[in-house]
Design brief:
heterodimer; A: 117 residues; mainly beta; seven-stranded mixed β-sheet; four-stranded antiparallel β-sheet; 11 strands; B: 110 residues; six-stranded mixed β-sheet; 0% helix
């Protein structure tokens, strides 16, 4: 299947700092990427849908000014957690949509574990 | 509201047995169906996709789809301890977002 990478895989930062997470589709072009967050032993929660060249669509309850998303190319989307606080500590996972013929499949990156001290 | 229902488990099977995972969905317009496997602390990994009624086999995995009953299942033959994970059922309608079930935990005992 298609490959999606994320960087960094793990980050520890101080409260109040900003953290940028990159998501790349390595062998296909993704006009749409998605950002999820997952707390321990909980389900995946969709945060936002990122469309290349346009503004992201955020899910209800997700602060767009805190979680900045940029999808500047067909293979790269970034999530910036601004002024991070301990409650933002979580596992952040991106996925990229591959459209082939009439099939629509999402592939997930390996995730980024964020710890805010 | 679109819903995808899965039994949370755990589903316990002995090594070598067949594991049967089930999922129902509420949106009759759903067109694409997926099974993801998620190990603890890792991101989901796509293991099967199915788009039309019937069975689809890939190695030890068989996905079954019945759109009339709004039901999709995953069979794992010759289950191995390494198959122990949470299995997420997901559906999508058109080009909208994936709707996930909460997942079924599978435990395969040696």
């Amino acid at each position: 299947g298609a490959v999606v990478s994320q960087h960094p895989s793990r980050v520890i930062c101080k409260s109040g700092t900003s953290v940028k997470i990159e998501c790349r589709s390595l062998d296909f072009q993704a006009t749409t990427m998605f950002w999820y967050r997952q707390f321990p032993k909980q389900s995946l929660m969709l945060m936002a849908t990122s469309n290349e060249g346009s503004k992201a669509t955020y899910e209800q309850g997700v602060e767009k000014d805190k979680f900045l998303i940029n999808h500047a190319s067909l293979t790269l989307s970034t999530l910036t957690v601004t002024s991070a606080h301990p409650e933002d500590s979580s596992f952040y996972i991106c996925s990229a949509r591959e459209l082939v013929s009439r099939t629509d499949t999402q592939y997930f990156g390996p995730g980024t574990r964020l710890t805010v001290l | 509201q679109k819903e995808v229902e899965q039994n949370s488990g755990p589903l316990s099977v002995p090594e070598g047995a067949i594991a049967s995972l089930n999922c129902t969905y509420s949106d009759r317009g759903s067109q694409s169906f997926f099974w993801y496997r998620q190990y603890s602390g890792k991101s989901p990994e796509l293991i099967m996709s199915i788009y039309s009624n019937g069975d689809k086999e890939d190695g030890r995995f068989t996905a079954q789809l019945n759109k009339a009953s709004q039901y999709v299942s995953l069979l794992i033959r010759d289950s191995q301890p390494s198959d122990s994970a949470t299995y997420l059922c997901a559906v999508i309608e058109g080009y909208s977002t994936l709707t996930f079930g909460k997942g079924t935990m599978l435990l395969v005992s040696p």
